Structure formats: structure tokens, C-alpha cells
Amino acid sequence: MCATVGTTSVTAVDPLEPLCKVASEFGMWVHVDAAYAGSSCICPEYRKFLNGVEFADSFSFNAHKWLLTSLDCCCLWVKDPNALVKSLSTDPEYLKNEATESKQVVDYKDWQLSLSRRFRALKLWLVLRMYGVDNLRSHIRNDCRLAQLFEELVAKDDRFEVFFPRNFALVCFRILPSAVASMASGHAVENEHGEAWELNDVNKLNAQLLHAINASGRVFMTHTVVGGVYVLRFAVGAILVRERHVIMAWKLVQERANSLLSMSGSNTTHA
């Protein structure tokens, strides 16, 4: 079973402890994928997202995603390395050597399919030595603070909503269906007030908004679709991003949204 801490689309977090307890009843191997968000757990305030990880069998995170390490660098912990060795070890005559047989070294060829591996550990070691834990924590906290700022700006505009709860430095947002209720095509749904709108139109307008933002060349965002809902993804992670850049990005979002909503309103009136 693979549990996730910080899913790619929306940085959702699985409840590790109850999942691990269920898995243990069936003798299942539990792997925790914390590719993006695992780095944040060097900060004490984010370690709550790893509650129950001690019951997992393996855990991995990508230092190249949020820990200032260049591509590629994935860190893997295994509770019982013998499980890998029993499955993957090879022992032909030409690979035998005294250091391995006397257990003086850990022969990582027995932990993987290939016989060799790149020296990724050196890159991470240099990052840890150069920045230190305080600076790495500061980097992550600052990214989360800037994402929180963007989240607050979105919340102040009643045409938009933060569609998924923000856990880390990713904000998932969209133009609200109520802002495009005048558009007329697709599959109708109702909001909590009983007003009708068209889900396909809402998704289409948000996709157009993303294209307009990226076409500006000033900001680059991505999107995801969860439960049929199209949302934009604003991720803070580049080391040179400052508060002024976040404010600029939000103003750009508003400008492009104003243009698109005006056009859609005009088209509906004309029709």
C-alpha cells in the first residue's frame, strides 16, 4: 500500500497511522510517498503530517523538489533492508569481494535492480553543509508564508475560491461558478443557494484563464482536475521569489480574469 504525504495535484495528506494499522492486519508492505512535502518535515511545525510514519516499511522524498538540491535526488528509507536484499541481491563470482562478504560495507547493488548508482548523496551532503538546518527551514517557511499570502489575496476576491485546503506552498484556486453563471452550455449543476450554472463553462473559463496567465510570460502556473473540477495551481518554490512577485502574480490573475469575464458577459448579452 502506498500512502502519500502531499499529493502531486493538491498536496493532500493521507492519515498514516490508521492506514498502517489496517495494512498490518493483512501483512501489507506500506510505502510512504512524500516526494514533495517530505522536505517540509525538517520544520517541527510540519512533522504532524508524518504522524504514524514509524509504522511504515519504507519512506521516500525528493530533495530536488524542495530542499535546494539539483536534479535528481530521491532519498529512501527502509525499515528492514533485508527485504530488499532477499529480493534483489545478485552474487555471481565476478562480483564477490572481501569487503562485502565481511560486512564492512553496505553493497547497494543488492538494494536495487542496477549494479551501480550515481553519487547523489554527495549533492545532498553539500546542500546540508552549505545551508545548514536553520537556512533550509527558513527557505521552506518562507515559501509557505508566500503561498499563504497568495491564498489570502484569493480569499479577498469574491469571484474566486481556494478550492482545496492549503497544507504547504501550493494554492489551488479557480474562478467561482457564480462568476460565470451567465454562460450557457455543458452540464448544469446547482450551488448551495440553488442557482444554476454550467460546470463545463466554469472549467473552460478557468482553463482560458490559465492560458492567458502563462501567455503573459510573467508567471507560469499549472492546473489539475479533481472530481471533474478544473483548478489552477500556484506553487511557490523558486529561491528568488519574493513577496512583490506574489502580489504581481495575483494582480495579473485579476487582470486576465477581468478581461475574460467581460468577454463572456458580452457574448452572453449579445446572444
From TrEMBL:
Keywords: Decarboxylase, Lyase, Membrane, Pyridoxal phosphate, Transmembrane, Transmembrane helix. Its cofactor is pyridoxal 5'-phosphate. GO terms for molecular function: carboxy-lyase activity. Belongs to the group II decarboxylase family. The modification N6-(pyridoxal phosphate)lysine is found at K65. The keyword Electron transport does not apply. The keyword Lipoprotein does not apply. InterPro entries: Aromatic_deC, PyrdxlP-dep_de-COase, PyrdxlP-dep_Trfase, PyrdxlP-dep_Trfase_major, PyrdxlP-dep_Trfase_small, Pyridoxal-P_BS. SUPFAM superfamilies: PLP-dependent transferases (SSF53383). It comes from the Eukaryota. This is Tyrosine decarboxylase. The chain crosses the membrane at residues 220-241. It comes from Eucalyptus globulus.
